[in-house]
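Q: Is it fine to ask for two folds in a single conversation?
A: Yes, each is treated on its own. Send the first.
Q: Here.
A: Result:
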Amino acid sequence: MFLSQLSGQQVSVVSSSTQQPPSLHVSCDHAFHQLNLCVLFILNEMCLFFTALQGNDDWTVTCTSSNVCSLRGSTVDISCTFKYPEKQHDLSTTVLETLWFSKEDRNHKPVDLLSDADYTGRVESSCGEISCIGSSCNRKCTLSIRDLRQSDSAVYNFRFKTNQPGGEHTANPGVALSVTDLQVKVSRQGNWTNLECDSMCANATIIWYNNGQRVTQRRSYWVYMNSFNSYSCAVEGYERLHSPSVSIMALFLKYSSGLPGNSCNRVSYPTRTMCVLQGTSVDISCTYSHPQYAKLYYKYWFKWRGNQEPSDLQSDSEYERRAEYPVEETGRSTLRITDLRDTDSAEYCFKFETSKHEWKGSLHGTTLTVTGLSVEVTPVATVTEGQRVTLTCITSCPLADKPSYIWYQNNGSVNGSENPENQLVLDPVGPQHAGSYSCSVRNYPHLRSPEETLTVQYAPKTPSVSVSPSGEIAEGSSVTLSCSSDANPAANYTWFKEHDDSVGESGQNYTIINITSEHGGHYYCHAHNAIGHQKSTSLFIFLKDQSSSQTTVAVKTVAVLLVTMVIFLLIFLWMSSTQQPPSLHVSCDHAFHQLNLCVLFILNEMCLFFTALQGNDDWTVTCTSSNVCSLRGSTVDISCTFKYPEKQHDLSTTVLETLWFTEEDRNQTPVDLLSDADYTGRVESSCGEISCIGSSCNRKCTLSIRDLRQSDSAVYNFRFKTNQPGGEHTANPGVALNVTDLQVKVSLQDNKANLECDSMCANATIIWYINGQYLAQGRSYWDYINSINSYSCAVEGYKRLHSPSVCIQGNNCNRVSYPTRTMCVLQGTSVDISCTYSHPPDDKLYYTYWFKWRANQKPSDLQADSEYEGRVKYPVEETGRSTLRITDLRHTDSAEYRFTFKISYHEWKGSLHGTTLTVTGLRVEVTPVATVTEGQRVTLTCITSCPLADKPSYIWYQNNGPVTGSENPENQLVLDPVGPQHAGSYSCSVRNYPHLRSPEETLTVQCTMNAPKTPSVSVSPSGEIAEGSSVTLSCSSDANPAANYTWFKEHDDSVGESGQNYTITNFTSELGGHYYCHARNAIGRHNSTLLFINVTGQSSSLTTVAVGTVAVLLVTMVIFLLIFLWMRRKRASRKACGQRGRPDTGEGSLPDPEYDDILHLTNRSSPAAQRKPIEEQDDIHNATIHISHSEDQEVPHCWADSPDQSDHTKQACGFPSFWLSAAVQGCVPIVRLPRFTSPFLLNL
C-alpha cells in the first residue's frame, strides 16, 4: 500500500509491503507433547506475522520539492530525506548504498548519475549525518548539478538500500527538473512596445538591461517604438544568465520592410562559460552591432574586475604577448589568449564606442575557467595486493569535447590507457602497478598532471636462502646463513632448525661461530610482514670429518685400489676364458609373431589418435572485433587472445610462433605481415604476458598498422603454433578491416546548402571547419548557397586526417588543400612540399608563405627563420599552387608544415593540419645478434624510422666496399650460412644517395664452438720429485672458445689454483698425491685424468708398513684366484666337448625378417632415435630373463656366437626381440638387453 501526501511542496512517500496472514494448518495429537508443539508453532507464526506488519510506517523518503525549475547554465540542488527503523527483527539496520538516477539500463537497473557520461564532471552527491530519535533514524542527501543544460530536464529519483530484507526504497514520485532559457517577448501597442521576460520558472524577480546597463526591476517593460537601443532581461541572483539582447527598431524594420534589422546597439556572447586546460590557448568570441549611421571609434576586450574601469587586455601587462585580436569580420570579434594560467580564470567582456553610443559592457560576458590536471587515487594511495584501485584524472571543471586521456606510470605511457574515460582501473592491483602516476589530455601530452605515488603492499614472496662458505663445512669454522624475500613493507626474518626448537634467531643473516657437529642439519627462514608470511625451502649444512690421520688415508686409498683391481681382473679372466653369452634362438609359431605385430600397431595408432582428439575444447582464438573501420593515414590496433592447455599428455605446452597474415603463398603457407613488402616499416606485432588459470593459459597479441592505406582493407588472420601434436590454430573468422576516406557531400535545398561528412565508419563524432578554423560538431552543417567559405570535416581524435575542403558553389572560395599528408625523406637530401589554394577572384592577394607549426606560437615565414637560413625557397609558382623546398634536411626539420595567405577580407589561419614531414637516417640491425657462430643464419636490415617513398633499392657495404649483388629493392642482406669471410663492418645506403651511408655495424663470426676435450696433463720435472724442489704442472685442452683452467688435488679442498700452469715451490711430502685440472668454456667443461706426484725419501714408516702388508695380501689372493679359475675352465671344457662336440660345429641363428618389420613399424615415428648411437641414448634399461627348467618344459636350444650374427639381431630365449628393444613414443617403454650379459645374470 502506497500513501502519498502533498502539502505545499513537501512530498512524503511511505512504502510498505503487506503480507496476508499465514494459513495455519495444525494437526495435533491427543498426546500432551504434541499439544505443546502445536501451541509453540502457532505462537511463533503469530509473532512473525505481527512483526512483519509492525513498523512499515518507519520506512519513508521525503524530498524538498516535487518540481524544480532552473535556468540553463545555473546550478541546482535537489534534496531528499530518508527514514528507517534503527533495528528490525533484532537486526541493526545499516545503510549500504544511496543512489541518484534519472534513467534505467536494459535490465531495468538504475544508472548512477555519478557514473553517467552525460553528467561527467557536473554532478556531486553528499549525505549529512545520521540522526536517530527513539527507534527511528533519518538522513538527508543532496544532489548538485552544475552548468545545467536543456537535456538535463528529467525526473530525478533517490534510492537507498539497507541490510534488512526488502530494505530497498525509492522516492515516489521523484523530483521533476525543468531547465529553461530566458527570452524577451515583444508586443506592440500603438507607438509603444511592451517587453516581457518569458521563462518557464514562475515567481522569479526580473531585472531589465538597456544597452547592457541595468535600468529597472519588474516583470515587463515599456519602451518607445523607434528606439535604437537593445534590451535583455535576467533573473535576480542569476544576472550572468541573461537573455539574448533584442532591438525594437530591428523588429520594426524586419516586419515593415523585410530588411535585416542589425542596426541597434548590442553585444551577444554565443558561449557563456568555457573550461580550458592550463598551458593551452582559447578563443573567446562575440557578435556586436550598432546603427549604421554611427561611426565606430574603438572596440576592445577587458577582464571584468568589479568596480574598476575597463582596460584593453592588449595593454595589460598581465597579458603581455598573450592576448591578441585576430583579423576580424564585421560585427564579430575574437579574443585569443595563449599560454593560459590559473590567474586567467575570470569573466571577459567586449566593449565598443560609436559616435552615438558607448557600450558599457555591464551585461555578463564569457566566464573562463582555467584548470590543471590532478590524479586522485581511490580508495587510498597505499593499498594491498589484490585490491581494486581506481585512478581518476581530475579537472576543476568539465573540459569541452570530452577529450581522451593518457596515463603515465614512472614517466612511461601505460599501454592501452588512452580512452575517453578519465579513469584507470587496476583490478586486481599487483606489485607491478606500484609507482608514480600522472595523466594528460591526448592533444596535449606535454601538459601532464603532478605525479601521484601509488604504493602496493604485499606479503613476502618465497624466500631464497644461501650459506657462506658453501659446500662441506669444516668443524670449528664460522658459517653465515642469509635469507632474502621480495616484500612490501620489508620483511622481518626468523631462522629455524628442523627438529630443534632451540634455534629461533631473528635477522636476515644468522651467523654460527665455532660450528660443531651438533650444528649440522636442515635450516630454514621465515619471512613475515604486516600483510602475510612465507617459509623458505630447507638449507642443509654438512660438516666435514677432520679426525683421519695420514696413515688411515693411505691405507684406505690402497684398499680401494686393491678391490678395484680384483674386480677388473675377474671380469677380464671371465671374458677371455668363457664363451660369449649364448644367442638364444626361439622357434615360435608364425601366428604368435603376427599377433604381437598387430598388438603393437594398434596400441601405437590408438595412442596417436587419442592424443590428437584430447583437449580440443581448450584451444581457442578470440578477437576483440570481427569488423574494424579506420581512416586512411591513421593507426589501427587489432587484438586477438588465444587460449591453450598448460599441459597435455604430460607434455608442457610451449608456444613456438605467433603470426598475423592476410594472404597465403603458392604453397598455401601464410605470408607473415612483418615480412610483407607492402607493410614494410608500418606494422608491429606484440604479445602480452602469459596468464594461466587452472590448467588453461591465455595470451593477448596485438597487431598495429600505421599510416593506413586503401589497399590495407582486408581480412586479417591470427595464427599460433605450439609443440603439441596438431597444436596450430587460426582465428576464424578473422578481423575485417575497412580503410575509408572522409568526403564532404553537398546537397542544395532552396537558398541553403546541407553539408554532410560521408564516411564508412559509423558512430563517429564529426568536427566541422570553416576556412580552416574550428566551427562546430555534428554529422551535418547548413550554410547559405552564396557563401564564399570553404568547409571540411574530421573525426574527433583524428583532426589531422580531415577531408579535402570544398566550396559550396564553384571553386572560388577560400581554401587550402594538401595533396600529401605525410612524407618520409632521407636525412641530407631535399624535399618539395606543395599545396593548392584558392580565394574569390575579386579579393586582392596580399601575401603567401609557408610556416612550421609550433603550438601556441605565431606563424612566421620559413624564409625568415634563422633555423632554415639558406635551405628554404619557394620555386616559381603557378597560380593557385605553392611549393616549399627544403634542402640539406636535418632531424630537427621533422615537423608539420602549413601554408597561409591573406586577401582583402580574409586571412587563412592555417589551423587545418598540413603536411607532416619525417626526416630519417639509416642504420643497420643485425639479427639474431652481432656476434654469431659460423654456420648460423644472419640477417642484416637497413632500417629507417619511417617507410621511404617509392620503395627505393638498397646498397650494402662490407669494410667500405660494396657487397657484390647486394643491390635490390629489399632492405635486407641475408648471410646463410655465415662464415669467417663475412666478418667485418657493414653499412647501407639508398641507391640514388650512395654518399649518405648508415653508421657501420660490426659483425663478428666465431668459428664453430666446442666444449673442451679431455685435457692432457704433464709435470716438470717428471718422475719422483725431491723434497724442497720446484714443480710445475701443465694442462692443455682443445676448445673453442679457449678454455679456462683450474687445478685441484684429490681429497684436498685447499687447492683451487687457476691457470694453465700450476707451480709449487719448496715441494714437501704433504704436497704429494693425485692432482687433476678442470678445463671449461661457455660451451662445456671436462676434467683431466689424475696425475700422481711422489716425493722421495720422506714417506712415513707407518705408511710404508701398511702399504707393504696390503701388497703381499694382494699378490697372494691373485695367485689363488688364477689357480681356481684355471681348474674351473678345464672342467668346463671337458663337459662341453662331451655334450656338444667341437664348439666350432654349431649353427648360427639368422635374423628373422618378421621381427625386422616389427622394429621398422614401431620405430617409424622416431627415425632419429634409430640413428642415434647406443652410447648416446638416454635411459637404457637392462632386462634380465630367468629361464626355468622343468621336466615338462622344452628348453629352447641356445646357439653360440655366429660370425653372421650381430648384437642387434640376437634374440632372447622365448621372447621376440621387439619386446626387448622396440620403442613406441608415448605408448611402449624402451627395453634393451645389455651388450654383454652373463648367463648367471639372466635372472628375471
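Q: Second one now.
A: Result:
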Amino acid sequence: MWNCMGISNCLSIVCVLLTVWTEVSQSSGYFELQLIAVQNANGELSDGDCCDGERNTQDLRCSSDECDTYFRVCLKEYQTDVTTTGLCIYGSGSTNVIGGNSFQFKSAKNNQNRNNDGGKIVIPFQFAWPVSYTLIVEAWDWDNGTHSSSGEDLLIERSVRKERINPGDDRQTIQYNGLTANFEYSIRVRCDENYYGSKCNKLCRPRNDWHGHYVCDQFGNRGCMEGWMGTYCTTAICKQGCNLLQGVCSAPGECTCTYGWQGPFCDNCLPYPGCVHGTCVKPWQCTCEKNWGGLLCEKDLNYCGTNKPCKNGGTCMNTEPDEYNCACPDGYSGKNCEIAEHACVSNPCANGGTCHEVPSGFECHCPAGWAGPTCAKDTDECASNPCAQGGTCIDMENGFECLCLPQWAGKTCQIDVNECMGKPCLNAYSCKNLIGGYHCACFRGWAGQNCDINVNSCHGQCQNGATCKEGQRGYVCACSPGFVGRHCDIQRNSCASGPCRNGGRCHTLLDSFMCECPHGYTGTTCEVQSNPCSPNPCQNQAQCHSLMDDFYCACSDDFEGKTCSELKDHCKTNHCEVIDSCTVAVATNGTQEGVWHISSNVCGPHGRCISQPAGNFTCSCEPGFTGTYCHENINDCVPPPCKNGGTCIDGISSFKCFCPDGWEGTLCDMDVNECSRNPCKNGGRCVNLLNHFYCQCQDNWKGKTCHSRESQCDSSTCSNGGTCFDHGDTFRCTCLSGWVGSTCNTAKNSTCDSNPCENGGTCVGGGDAYTCICKDGWEGPTCAHNANDCNPQPCYNGGVCVDGVNWFRCECAPGFAGPDCRINIDECQSSPCAYGSTCVDEINSFLCVCPLGRAGPHCQELIGIGKACRYSGLQFPHGSRWEEECNTCQCVNGIVRCSKVRCGRRPCLLQRGGAGPDSSAPCPRGQECVEHQFLTCFAKPCHQWGVCSTPDPPPPLHTQCEPNSGYLDNSCARITLIFNRDKVPQGTTVENICSELRYLPIAQTLAKDCTLLILCDLSYSNSDAVEVAMSYDQDGQEQNGDRGQIQEAASAIVGALSKRHNSTVMLAVVEVKVETQVMPQSVDHLVPVLCVVFSVLWIFCIVVCVWWTRKRKKERERESAAEDSTVNNQLEPLRVSLPQHKDNRGKDIQHECKKLMNPPDRTCDGAEGDEEEDGEEEELRRGGMELDKFSTQKCSLAGVQDKVMGKGGVICTMHSAPVKPPHRTAYSPKDNRCKNLNAANVSEDIKDHYV
C-alpha cells in the first residue's frame, strides 16, 4: 500500500516538475543589453580606492594594475523609488571579465544591428512584456586581493534607469556618466520567433500542414496561403466552378465528386450502369437520346442516320431497331452496295492511277509518289529521314528537299563544306578544314575560334562579375564569391560536402548554402530537433503537450481550435436556449443546476452585456472605461498631472509619471540630490544642481570630483562627446550639437519633439531613441496600425465582424440577430402559413407544409385536386414545380405554366482530347457542346468554351433594346455591371455572365406574364464592365408597356445582385449602374398642351367680355332710343294745336325737334344722371309698351285745352333731364327719334293722355 502511494506521489511530483520545466522553457522574448564603451580613467572603485595595488605617492594615481571589469544587470518592475537590493523580478544577467579600466566594442559602436557576443547580456522572459521597467547596470572588479568580496567593496559604478520600451529591432543607446566611471550601452527588447505585439504575447507560427496553411505578417496576423481560407486556413478553395453541393476538395484546385456525380466540376450525373446512349439529370437515370431506345438506350432507332452503312450512293432505309436495307444504284450490289459490277466506269483512280476491276470492286495502280485506294494520298518521302547531319526535310510531290546546316551541303546534307574558303581566321598561321567545322592555328598572344581574342587583354575574359587585372604575364581574374577558375566561369558548389543533416535539402547560394529542413528540425544544418511546444503555440492560457512531430493544446471551456484561439460555439454540440440577446443557457454537468449561462463578449473585457428588447443590447462599463462597447479608457492624464516636463502614461483609473533626468517623485516634483552619494573627493564640498553637481575643491585639488593634482580635465569630465578646456581654477565644456549643460549632460532637443507617435500615442524619449506607448486598440512602433479586434472571430453563424478601434461589431447574416449573431430569428413567429398549414422555421426563411389542395409559399393558393401533367416525356403531379433550363414550370390541373425568360444558348465546356463523350458539358439531354466563334472573352483564356447545340434554330429577336445601343423606351432598361478584374475567375466569357443573370430566381418571377429578354455585351466605354439590356416583348413584338414595370424589373435584378450568393463571377461585381427612360413620351407634351389650352380659354374669355360689353352697350342704346321715342310721343299730345293754326303744325313739330336736339338741362356723363337712368330703366321698359299702342294717334293742343278746361285746371308737366343724348346716324345729324314725326298725321281726337 505504501509502495503504491509512494509511486503515485513520485509520479505527481514528476508531473509537477515537468510542468514547471515546460513553463520555464516557454519564453516569449528577451531583453538585450550591449555594452559599447567603458571608461574608468583612474582605475578606481566607487569608494575611491584602487582596484589593484596602492596609489602613486606623487600623483596619487592607481598605476600598479588595471581593474578586472565585469558587469551585472538586474531587470525589475517599474519602481518610483528604486531599491538596488532585492530580487530581480524580470531577470538578471552578467558577463565574464571583459576588460580593464577602459575598453570599447568597435563592432557594437559601428553597427548596432550586428550580433556581437562580447559585452552582450541577454535576459529572457516568459511573460507578457510590461513595457515599463527598472534597469540596474553595475560594473564590478572581479579580483582584488586587498579587499574582501562581501558587500559593495568591489563595485566600480552603478547606473539606475527606469522608463518604458516597446519590443523592436532598433536599439536605444544610453550614455551614463558616473562619478567613478562612464559607460555607454544600448538596449532593446525583442520578441521570440513567432511572437508579436507590444507585449510579445501574440503567437503566430507560420505553418503549411494539416493544422493550417498560413503565414504571419509583421503584426502577427494570420494570412492564408493561396488556395486556402478559413480562420486557420484549413479549408481548401476548390477548383473554380466546382459544384460544392456535389463535390469536395482536400487540397486547392481539386474537385472530388461525391457518389453519383462526375466531371471536372462535379456537375454531371452518372447515368444508370450500362446506359449506352442515354443521359441523366439526377444520378442513375438513363434518358435516351434522339433516335435511341431500349431499357439501356442501346437500340439504334435510326441506324441509317447514325452509321450510314450504304456505300457508292446507295439509299438506306430503316426497317427495325438496328436493322436496315440499302437500295443500290446501277452497277453496285451487296448488303451495303459495296460490290461494284462495273467499278472502273466512274474512273475512281486519281492522280493518273490505273483502274483494274477485281471481284470485290476495283483496284488502283498508283504512279510514283501517290498511294491509297484511289491514289489520292501523297507519299511522305520524309518519313525515312533522308537528310543527314541535322538537315531539315521538306516533303514534295514525288520527292523531297533537304535544308542543310551551314557546314554541310548536298542532296542529303552529307558533303562537308570547306569553311576555310571564307577565311574566318584573323590572327593565325593557317586554317584547317575539319568535318563539320574548321580549326585556326593562332599566332602567339591570340586565342579564340577565329584567333580574334588578345590573350593579354582583359576585354571579355572574366565572367560572372569578376574583376580583370592586367599584368606583365597577362591578365588575372578576381572572382566574385561563389565562383572559381581562370575566367571565373565555374560556380563553387557549397553543397558538395553534404552539410545538411537529418534529411535536409541543400540549396547553393553565392559563397554559401542554405538547408531546407524537414518537419521537426531546425538550425543552420538541420541539426536541432525542434520542440513543437517551444515556443508555446497555444493561446488563451492553454497548456501545450508535445506529440510526435506535433502538439496538442488543452483548451478551456470557452475556446477551441488547434491553438485554442477560436471562441467555442457551445450551441453546435449542445442544446442551447436563448435567454436574451446577451445570454444563452447550455446544458452541462459541470454545475449543480445543470445549466451553464454564457454571456456575449461584445462589450470587451471591461464591460458587461445587458439585454434590451428586440435583440438589442447595451454595455455596462467597469470603472475607468466608457464608450458604446466599453472600449475607451478614460484618460486620467487630462489635465496633465506631471510636473517639470514629466511624461504622463494613462492607466486604468490611474496614471504614472516618467520623470526627466534630475527629477523624481510621483509627480516629478522632487529634485534629485546628486550630492547624496558624496561624489566630491579629497575634502571637496558638493553643491547640488539640476541634474548635476559641482565640487568646490580644497588644497589645490582639481577636476570634476577633486581627484586630480594636474588638470581640471579628464576623459570623464564632459559627457556625450563634449570637449573639456582647463581654465586654471575651473573647467569649461564645449558641447556637441544637440547637448547643453555645464558638462553636456542635458539633451537640447528631445526625440519626441517631432511627435512621432500617431493616434494619441504617448512618446517617451531616451537618448537618441524613443518609445511610443499606444492607446488601447493601436499597435506598431508609431501606433499607426489598428489592432485586429476581430481575431479570433467573435461572430457566430456566418456574421461579418467589423473591426473598430478597440471594439468590434457583428453584422449578422440574414436570419440571425444579437450582438454576436447567436440568435436564430424565428420566422414562424408571425404565423405566415395560412389555412391550417404547418410552419417549419428555417435560416432566414420558413417552409409551409400545405394541406391537400393548397399550394404556394403561404399555402394561399387553392389548387384543389387536379390532373397530372405530361411534359418532355415525364409526368408531374398537380401543383408540382420544376426547373426547365432558366425557367420554372408548374403543373396546374393538367396544364403546364412556365415562366417566360429567353434562356438563349447555354455556355458549355468543349470536348478536348477526342476520347469519349464530353462529360464536362452541362448541356440538356439531346444536345452537345459545339464551338461558337462569336463568344466574347471577359477573362482569358476562353478557348475551352462553346455553346449547347439546339435542334431548331433560335427564334429571331424583335427588339431595339440592345447593349451599347443607347436606346431606351418604356420597356427597355440598361444595367452596367462593373467588375474587379482581380476577382473574376479565369476563363469567364460575357455569355457566362449573361447566363448567370438569366438563371437568377428573380428573373423567373419577373417573367410570369411577359417574355423577359436579357442581352449582354462588353461595354464600349469601360473594359472592366459588361452592359446588360433588359426588355419585355409580347408574341415576338416589342412591348411598349408601362415604364414602371421595367423599372421594377431592373431594381429587382440589382437587388438580387447585391445579396450574398454563391456565384464567384457575381461576387466580383463592385458597382452597378441602372439606366431607364427619364419621362414617358406623353408627359413630354403635357406642359405645352396645357399652356395652349389656358391661352385659348383666356382669349375666349376676352372675346366673350368684349362681345358682352358691346351687346350691353347696344341694349342700352336701344333702351335709350325707346325712352326718347316715348318722350317724344308724349310731347305730341301736350302741344296746343288750335284749329286756326293747323297749317303751322309742321313747323311746331320741327321746333320741338330742335328743342330736343339740345336740351338745356341734360347731363351726359354725370353720376346723378346715371343713377336716375338705372332707376328709371325698368319703368321706361314697362311704359314703352303702352306708348307704342298710341304711336299712331294724333295729339292736338285743342284737345288738351278742352281736357284741361273740362277737368278743372289739371296741369301736365315733363322733366327732360333723364333723356339720353340723341342717336345720330352717318346720313343725318338729326335725331332719329324725330324723323318719323314729319310724316305723322296729328289726330285731332285724343281719347287718353299719358305723361
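Q: Anything structural to flag on that second result?
A: Two points. Residues 1-26, 913-921, 1126-1251 have pLDDT under 50 and may be disordered. The chain has 13 helices and 96 strands.
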